[in-house]
Design brief:
By secondary structure, the chain is of the alpha/beta class. The protein has a single domain, classed as Glutaconate Coenzyme A-transferase (3-Layer(aba) Sandwich), CATH 3.40.1080. It is built from nine helices and 17 strands. The strands form five sheets. The protein has an eight-stranded mixed β-sheet with strand order 2-1-5-10-14-15-16-17, sandwiched between helices. Strands 7-6-11 form a three-stranded mixed β-sheet, with no helix packed on it. A two-stranded antiparallel sheet has the order 3-4. α3 crosses α8. The radius of gyration is 20 Å and the shape is globular.
Length: about 300
């Protein structure tokens, strides 16, 4: 017989908080938990549809129970038990503190500087953390036109910290983007005489409230990345089964791998239990479930 939510809640603390073995989890679960680990307990988080929602909801159950989640549709601080299908899914509004709209999320929470962490995706990212979701090639005659910024540029510049989740390919990890929708740690400084200079954003935006806002992490299907003091991306960890050389082969620039700490930490059994049984049991965003080891399944079935 299937267990009730209350019965499952009582099991969480009984599940060992020790790393799972390779083969006992799938890559999307590792990526979702990589997102969860970006969340601090006092964060106000602006999340979009997909794995960012999965990761942040997992963080609410594990490492960041007091973090506040805001959805673009206007839902603030919802206590959703299962992941919504989108930011407009009314399940996200369960026990929410505020049920507003776009004016509230962008005009109040974001522009007033309350959002401490934003999660975004992108078609391409450059070595400075700038993201392109606009077009490939010449802007006026592009080889491919994407859907555009949406809230990407707003969130990416106004949130105190930004983390990206992107599928890594050589054509998507670039030295410089064809078009920058959301600037990273470097951007153009446009002069009064019509010239421009590529400079650190902290210099260009000096004196503004946004000079120190920017990307702090990137989670891909190959590893986790950070940015150094000069605003340049570097590899922090590579996922289990992925070598540093494979990561470098899928970068369009000379990636700094001198600071690699090793493999990305494997998910714990407790994290996987929360992710599978509470956050996305319907497999809305996770493609599949992997069987638990016999001893873990025995705890669940008891």
């Amino acid at each position: 017989m299937a267990k009730t939510m209350e019965e499952l809640m009582e099991i969480i603390e009984k599940i060992p908080n020790e790393p799972a073995k390779v083969g006992e989890f799938i890559l999307p679960e590792l990526m979702a938990l990589g997102i969860a680990h970006e969340v601090r307990n006092d964060d106000i988080v602006f999340a979009g549809t997909g794995l960012p929602m999965v990761g942040i909801m997992t963080a609410n159950f594990t490492n960041a129970p007091n973090a506040t989640l805001i959805y673009e549709s206007g839902i603030c601080d919802g206590k959703t038990m299962h992941v919504p299908m989108s930011v407009c899914d009314q399940r996200a509004a369960n026990q929410s503190s505020v049920l507003g709209g776009l004016v509230d999320t962008f005009g109040y929470y974001l522009q007033q500087g309350f959002v401490t962490l934003g999660f975004l995706g992108g078609a391409a990212i450059d070595m400075y953390g700038g993201v392109n979701v606009t077009s490939i090639g010449d802007y006026y005659k592009p080889s491919h036109r994407f859907t555009g910024s949406g809230g990407n540029s707003d969130i990416g510049t106004l949130a105190h910290r930004v983390a990206y989740i992107i599928l890594q390919e050589k054509r998507r990890f670039l030295e410089r983007n064809d078009y920058t929708t959301t600037p990273g740690w470097w951007c153009w400084d446009y002069k009064a005489d019509g010239t421009k200079e590529w400079k650190p954003k902290k210099e260009v935006w000096k004196g503004t409230a946004y000079a120190n806002n920017g990307p702090t992490g990137v989670v891909t299907n190959m590893g986790v990345y950070r940015f150094d003091d000069n605003g340049i991306i570097y590899l922090e960890t590579h996922h289990p089964g992925v070598s540093v050389e494979q990561v470098k082969e899928n970068c369009g620039f000379n990636l700094n791998v001198s600071k690699v700490k090793g493999e990305t930490p494997k998910p714990t059994y407790r994290e996987l239990f929360v992710l599978r049984e509470f956050v996305d049991p319907e497999l809305i965003f996770l493609p599949a479930k992997t069987a638990y080891p016999a001893d873990i399944q025995a705890i669940i079935d008891k």
